[in-house]
């Protein structure tokens, strides 16, 4: 089964992360079959100062 790597800006709550991994797991099993126990989700929180879009750091955005 799959392993998902999720990178996102820091600041999400534990509850949001729990819901995200539950939904990723649910959809994976629904689409691919298999067992929920075989789906891995790795979350990496990235500081806003280490992520840029359009040439501008997210820490500089208002």
UniProtKB/TrEMBL annotation:
Pfam families: Tautomerase (PF01361). It comes from the Bacteria. It is an enzyme of class 5 (isomerase). Its EC number is 5.3.2.-. Residues 5-59 form the 4-oxalocrotonate tautomerase-like domain. Transmembrane segments: none annotated. The keyword Isomerase applies. Keywords: Isomerase. Belongs to the 4-oxalocrotonate tautomerase family. This is Tautomerase. It comes from Acidovorax lacteus.
